[in-house]
Design a protein that fits this description.
binds zinc ion; about 25% helix; about 160 residues; 5-stranded antiparallel beta sheet; alpha+beta; 3 helices; 3-stranded antiparallel beta sheet
C-alpha cells in the first residue's frame, strides 16, 4: 500500500513560526482531519534547523531551469538529495544545464515540491478529502501569520 502525504510549508524557505502558533495550527489541523479510529493517520509538525527538501516523492517527473528553460536531469536532483541528505544552508545551487547559481525554490517541478524549515504534515488522512482545502490553508495561514504552500505526495 502506498502512503499518501500532504503538508503545508511557508512560502519563505527560511521562515519559522513561534512554537505556540505552531501548536495552535497543529490543533486546528487535527480538528479538520478527524481520525476517530486513530489507526492510520498521523499529523506531524516539523521544525528543521536547515532548509529541508519537502518533495513530492515519486510524483516528480520533470524539473525545469528558471534561467535557461531547459530540463534538468532527474538524476542530478536525486544525487543532490543524496549528497546533502535533503538539507541545505542556502537554497543556491549550481544547475547542470547552464552552470549558473539558481535558488532551489525557483526550479519548476511538474508536481508541487518545496523547501522549508517548517512543515505541518498529515500522513494517510482518515477523511475522504485527502488534501487541505483552500479555506483550511487560509485558516492555517491566519494562525501562523505567514503564507503557505501545499505539497501533496504519494510515497
Ligand atoms: Zn539552466
Amino acid at each position: 500500500m502506498s502512503d499518501f502525504y500532504t503538508s503545508l510549508i511557508p512560502t519563505d524557505v527560511t521562515w519559522q513560526p513561534a512554537s505556540a502558533a505552531a501548536a495552535e495550527a497543529a490543533a486546528y489541523v487535527r480538528r479538520v482531519f478527524p481520525d476517530p479510529d486513530g489507526v492510520q493517520q498521523s499529523v506531524t509538525v516539523g521544525f528543521h534547523d536547515r532548509i529541508t527538501a519537502v518533495d513530492a516523492g515519486e510524483n516528480v517527473q520533470q524539473i525545469t531551469c528558471p534561467r535557461c528553460d531547459r530540463d534538468i536531469a532527474l538524476d542530478w536532483y536525486q544525487d543532490l538529495l543524496e549528497e546533502t541528505g535533503g538539507e541545505f544552508d542556502s537554497v543556491l545551487v549550481t544547475v547542470p544545464c547552464c552552470e549558473t547559481a539558481v535558488a532551489l525554490d525557483t526550479l519548476t517541478f511538474d508536481w508541487p515540491s518545496g523547501f522549508a524549515r517548517f512543515e505541518i504534515a498529515v500522513a494517510n488522512p482518515a477523511r475522504p478529502e485527502f488534501a487541505f482545502t483552500p479555506d483550511e490553508i487560509r485558516a492555517v495561514e491566519a494562525i501562523l501569520g505567514h503564507p503557505l504552500r501545499q505539497v501533496v505526495a504519494h510515497i
